[in-house]
Give the backbone structure.
Amino acid sequence: MADLERSAAKEKFLNFLEQKNLRITNQRRAIVETVFSTDQHFTAEQLLEWSRKRDSSVSRATVYRTLPLLTESGLVHEMDFGKDYKIYDPNYADHPNHNHIICDDCDKIVEFESERLETLENEISQNLGFTVKSQQLRINASCEDMKKLGACNKKGH
Ligand SMILES: [Zn+2]
Ligand SMILES: [Zn+2]
């Protein structure tokens, strides 16, 4: 994703915090910088680990308090892949209609977009008298490693 779009999303989020009269502390800034400099999907624990690389003072509590603000702003989506933790996605601001395929064993996630899918979903919705507002398809699967080797190279978190 273009750096320009990234920094626009970051500015939007900082404005969002300001409107809520929330202080932009150093910890919070480190978290925000981290979120808007990656296009990787992440868990709360991963975000904590990455943010601490920028600023070792970032606390778990601040990460867990900042995540709901990120999702409330609409710039980050919380996704439930049926795991016992949530996965966060920073890519919806720029790609509102993207889909995911996830390996059930190692949590490898690949994004994809498909015009054929969108056409099909519009067609189905129209036939049922609905209008599509947003669409996301999630495919749970086994990644190539799992298929070939019977185990995933990069296991979990
Ligand atoms: Zn995504
Ligand atoms: Zn896998």
